[in-house]
Amino acid sequence: MFKLRLCFTPSILNLLVMLLSTPVPSLFSLTLENPTRTAPKPSNPVIMIPGDGGSQLMAKLNKTTAVHFLCTYTTDYYFTLWLNLELLAPYFIDCTVDNLRLVYNPASKKTSNSPGVKTALPQFGDPDGVEFLDPSEIFVSSYYAPLGEALRAAGYENNKNLFGTAYDFRKAPDEMQEYFTNLTKLIESSYAQNGKPALVVAHSLGNMVFTYFLSTMPQDWKDKYVAGYVAVAAPLGGAAKLFRLYVSGDALGERFISALSVRRMQRTFPSSAFLIPYAGPHFWDDDFPFVITPKRNYSISNLPTLAKDIGFPYLYDMRKNTEHLVNVDKVHPGVPVYCVHGWNISTPLQFNYTEFSFPDEQPEVTFSNGDGTVNDKSLQGCDLWSGSKWKFEHIYLNQAEHLEILDDDRFISYVKKILKV
């Protein structure tokens, strides 16, 4: 879950920090196997579904206003909006925030781009759109690249039996019909091309997206076309840090980023509302206090009050539009499931504000177990799918952080083991 969120946060900045702080040699630790060795014949085709912030996004501008003089008003071409490292620099990030924000229509319950912004996605199915978030493939923007490199070393080929499915991560599944149509066609065509059903690998928010998709598909279709589903760092019960994102913004610890500046953008993403924690016997109580202030506490049960008190009433509307889309405690995906995630990492759970810090300053944080982004209760939601007729595995990787897991040799080896390559 990014949120400029992450890949749930709602961010990629966290990915950049992690990669920038990694010793340079380790950034190139994935190497092709001995070229003289005959690569094994690939097994099932692999389809990678990204998380929040895990897809490239292009934009073309025709704006009449801008947030300040450094911002471009118009372009006659599509440029990289996400991820473009230059556009995350101080001052320029304000332009990026204004271009990435969405506008919510309470009548249609849908969102649209900021006025004067037209967006586009990479070619559907091409792994490049999710392996690197910057099209220049600069190493600090690596996302699914380690898995892609490992599979190509095992004999896989891009756009033949290895695919990526970029989507507009700002939106929730109720606004993703075109994506689901394309995903259906891709899975079916990969079967026709390879003669085998696909193994789908989803990360963070991508799990909520794919789980919803599977709930809409007939069982005979799933039996024929989907060999299995690898749920990586799945926030099946949401993530507590979304509360902080909505209240005071989430700059992910970056001093050069203003949490209030990115909050303006983060609040407008329906995917953010979609990932607010869920209530239930396996997740959190309705009245569990995620946000604590001297005046009142805020929980899942009083989201309308929180929305009013932070001055963003559409929060509750967007949550109501999306909260019914995934019911992991009631609906099994209907395919073999392989859950894998990190563990034993301090993960934000509760946010304590003073009388003067709510809602525009950062809170003190109380932590739970988890993967650094998704809390333990949410990660363990996978267990709701055990005990069915479909194969089920649940793997805990000690100290595997939410984003770093995609570059973790244990995770990559696990996927290769499932594929038998």
Distance between the termini: 28 Å
Low-confidence stretches: 1-37
**Number of helical segments?**
15
Average pLDDT, all residues: 91
User: What fraction of the residues are assigned to beta strands by DSSP?
Assistant: 15-25%
Main beta sheet: 6 strands, parallel
Cα Rg: 21 Å
Structure description:
The chain is an alpha/beta fold. Helices cover 29% and strands 18% of the residues. The strands form five sheets. It has a six-stranded parallel beta sheet with strand order 9-3-10-11-14-17. Strands 13-12-15-16 form a four-stranded mixed beta sheet. A hairpin with a 4-residue loop joins strand 12 (291-292) and strand 13 (297-298). Helix 3 packs parallel to helix 10 (259-266) and helix 9 (241-248) packs across helix 10 (259-266). The chain is globular and about 60 Å long. It starts with a strand and ends with a helix.
Keywords summarizing the entry:
17 strands; 6-stranded parallel sheet; globular; 4-stranded mixed sheet; alpha/beta; single chain
Summarize the structure.
With 421 residues, the chain is an alpha/beta fold. The chain is built from 15 helices and 17 strands. The strands form five sheets. It has a six-stranded parallel β-sheet.
Please give the structural blueprint:
Elements: E1 2-3, E2 5-6, H1 12-20, H2 24-27, E3 46-49, E4 57-61, E5 79-82, H3 92-100, E6 102-105, E7 110-113, E8 117-120, H4 128-131, H5 145-153, E9 162-164, H6 177-194, E10 198-203, H7 205-215, H8 219-225, E11 226-232, H9 241-248, H10 259-266, H11 270-274, E12 291-292, E13 297-298, H12 303-309, H13 314-322, E14 337-343, E15 347-352, E16 364-368, H14 376-379, E17 392-398, H15 409-419
Parallel strand pairs: 3-9, 3-10, 10-11, 11-14, 12-15, 14-17
Antiparallel strand pairs: 1-2, 4-5, 4-8, 6-7, 12-13, 15-16
Helix pairs in contact: 3-10, 9-10
